[in-house]
Amino acid sequence: MPITSVEKDLEALTMQIVADFPVPVRRLWDAYADPRQLERFWGPPGWPASFTRHDLVPGGTSEYFMTGPDGERSGGYWEFLDVNEPNSFEVKDGFAGPDGEPNADMPDMRMVFNFQETADGSRLVTTTYFNSLEELESLVEMGMEEGTRAAMGQIDDVLADLASFAADLKTQSQNLTDTHVRVSRVIRGSLQQVWEAHHDVELLQRWQTGCDGWVMPVCDLAAEVGDSNRFEWEREGGGDRFGFVGELLEREAPYREVTTERMIDTDGPTTYNELTLTPVEDGTLLSLVITYPDAGLRDQILATGMIDGMEDSYARLESEVLGTA
Questions:
Q1: DSSP letter string over 22-75?
Q2: pLDDT digits over 172-199, tens only?
Q3: Cα four-point dihedral sign 83, 89, 94, 95
Q4: Fewer CB within 10 Å: C terminus or N terminus of the chain?
Q5: Contact 97, 110 (CB under 8 A)
Q6: Do 107 and 301 form a contact (C-beta atoms < 8 A)?
Q7: Residue 315 dihedral angles phi and psi, to the nearest 5°
Q8: Domains of the chain
Q9: Does the global pTM surpass 0.70?
């Protein structure tokens, strides 16, 4: 159990939890920066968390839900008030309803996470600030302290599992819900390099071509929110051309972009794509959360070998554009 102390100050309306870990600060920080790792310990045993959004930047947002043993869900969100990588971050922490929106009937809190170097590794000091004594007592009665202790008891196993999150792993997909899929890969390049590689036409045409033997003759990038994208591919020498069009809905350079996507000349449905880039120790974690209309279409598209094609593209990005493979 990494927790060394829990102290409640009824006058200051705070609860402070201190936990020590035998790993460097950077490794501990990355466990909170990477949603694949965070969701392994944020929910207590029996209530695993799923993060459908995780933007670890000032003004960013995280959205998650925890699933109980009988399938019941409890949702939550973070609004990032301050981020000082890899030393601290501060969030507004609250409950969310079934639609993912903040639940105004439940209290919210301010939480500060401080990451400190120690002689034996690192220390995490988490301080929660409550709005009133009544809210503090209510949340403690709901089991907040016990739940936090149980959840943090899982961190050691995550920190020890380096293999599952190594930079040399291929592209992976994870079904978050019946309609949400998260595609993840660490790209061995800086945040700015990876962002630029997604927003420079010449660079995109060099690496985003999927499996070998294909080229990208059309690459029309949206200049600003409300503009359209258009991408087309064909075999080298011509033939079998296909493509996608979509709208740019959000852009927060250099870490987040949201677009829609629909296959050209088909009646196929539109997907909703959320790209998030996060600095980690060995490069930049790319997370792409795709929302499909239903589980059937999700499974149909994943079965086409889409993830293999994305891996070929990301490997090409590292080797031909970034020179880091």
A1: SS-HHHHHHHHH-HHHHTTTSSPTTS-EEEEEE--STT-EEEEEEE-TTS-EEE
A2: 999 999 999 999 999 999 999 999 999 9
A3: positive
A4: N
A5: no
A6: no
A7: -65, -40
A8: 3-161 (3.30.530.20), 172-322 (3.30.530.20)
A9: yes
